[in-house]
Amino acid sequence: MTGEREPDGNLYVLWHARHLAVEQDERIVHLDADGAIHLNEEEWRIIGIYPDQAVAERQREISRKLPGFRDEPDCFEIAPVGVDEDLWNQGFVTVYPEGRRRD
Fold first, then answer.
1. 103 has a pLDDT exceeding 60
2. What's the rounded Cα separation, in Å, for the pair 17 and 29?
3. pLDDT at position 60, please?
4. Taking the model in full, what pTM does it have?
5. Residue 76: pLDDT above 80?
6. In angstroms, rounded to a whole number, what is the distance separating the alpha carbons of residues 75 and 38?
7. C-beta separation of 40 from 59 below 8 A
8. 2: pLDDT strictly greater than 50
9. Which run of H or of E encompasses 77?
10. Is 70 within 8 Å of 14 (Cβ atoms)?
11. Which of 9, 17, 54, 67 has the largest count of CB atoms under 10 Å?
12. What is the chain's mean pLDDT, rounded?
């Protein structure tokens, strides 16, 4: 078992954010000043779920070169998730732009 890592009990989800909001000066903001992904009017896509973070990081490098993803190469996120773990156990609230609220 040389070179193999001990599993940490998590799987790793590779996400990509496609930003939809265009600023008044026609820019699309991908990253905030601190380098974090800008979270305002984006679509998230799951690229895949992987057995460890290293595999997810390798796939991120491959995906950065693909059409659609290469336009926003820094907008990937890798997040650990546990198996058999509820993630939305408090529900959610949708905030609609003014005038677009649904009943």
1. no
2. 11
3. 97
4. 0.66
5. yes
6. 9
7. no
8. no
9. strand 76-82
10. no
11. 17
12. 80
**For the stretch 34-44, what's the b/e string if a residue is b when 16 or more beta carbons lie within 10 angstroms of its beta carbon?**
eeebbeeebee
* CA 52 – CA 13 distance, rounded (Å): 9
Does residue 21 have a pLDDT over 90?
no
What six digits make up the tokens of 23? Answer: 């600023």
Distances (CA, A) of 14 to 3, 19, 52, 60, 101: 23, 17, 11, 7, 31
The label of the residue with tokens 């799987």 reads 11
Residue 89: predicted pLDDT: 85
Residue count (the chain): 103
Alpha-carbon gap, residue 83 to 62, rounded angstroms = 25
| CA–CA distances in Å: residue 42 to residues 5, 10, 23, 79, 85 | 34, 26, 13, 17, 25
Does the pLDDT of residue 49 top 90, yes or no?
yes
Place of tokens 């997810």: 56
Q: Say if CB 62 and CB 76 are below 8 A apart.
A: no
